[in-house]
Amino acid sequence: MFDTALIHRVGPDYPETARKLRIERVGMLRAMITTDGTVDGVQVVKSAGPLFDSAAVAAVRKWTYGPATRDRRAVAVYLDVTVTFALRS
């Protein structure tokens, strides 16, 4: 198991249609964290729905992490991340 820390998180753009209809969802994505901590190869593991998936993927691609290490060397890892679309009251 490798640990990596989230350094910079960008929230997803809330789809306007979903906002108007007051729809909230949660999706799960799998992202490869490269040796320099950037995100690559994002895939939808659990869909939040067609209105939300592309916004979730676009946001996660902008995230940055501290690189995971093994034997004190940076290694690429896959990480499952949750993206929540919630409206504030």
Task: Outline the structure in words.
The protein is mostly beta strands. It has a single domain (6-85), classed as TolA/TonB C-terminal domain, CATH 3.30.2420.10. The protein has helices at residues 16-20, 53-60, and strands at 6-8, 25-33, 39-46, 64-65, 68-70, 73-75, 77-85. The strands form three sheets. It has a three-stranded antiparallel beta sheet, covered by helices on one side. It has a two-stranded antiparallel sheet with strand order 1-4. The chain is elongated, with a radius of gyration of 14 Å.
- Give the overall silhouette: elongated
**Could you describe the largest sheet, including whether it forms a barrel?**
3 strands, antiparallel
In N-to-C order, the SSE pattern is EHEEHEEEE
> What topology, given as strand order, has the largest sheet?
3-2-7
**CATH domain fold name:** TolA/TonB C-terminal domain
Hey, roughly how much beta strand do the residues contain?
A: 35-45%
Number of helices: 2
Per CATH, the superfamily is TonB
Structural class: mainly beta
Query: Can you count the beta strands?
Result: 7
Rg, please?
14 Å
The low-pLDDT segments are: none
What value does the average pLDDT take?
Answer: 93
Q: Share of helix among residues?
A: 10-25%
Distance between the termini: 38 Å
Architecture in CATH? 2-Layer Sandwich
Number of domains: 1
Features:
single chain; 89 residues; mainly beta; 3-stranded antiparallel β-sheet; two-stranded antiparallel ribbon; 2 helices; 7 strands; 15% helix
Show the helix and strand layout.
Elements: E1 6-8, H1 16-20, E2 25-33, E3 39-46, H2 53-60, E4 64-65, E5 68-70, E6 73-75, E7 77-85
Antiparallel strand pairs: 1-4, 2-3, 2-7, 5-6
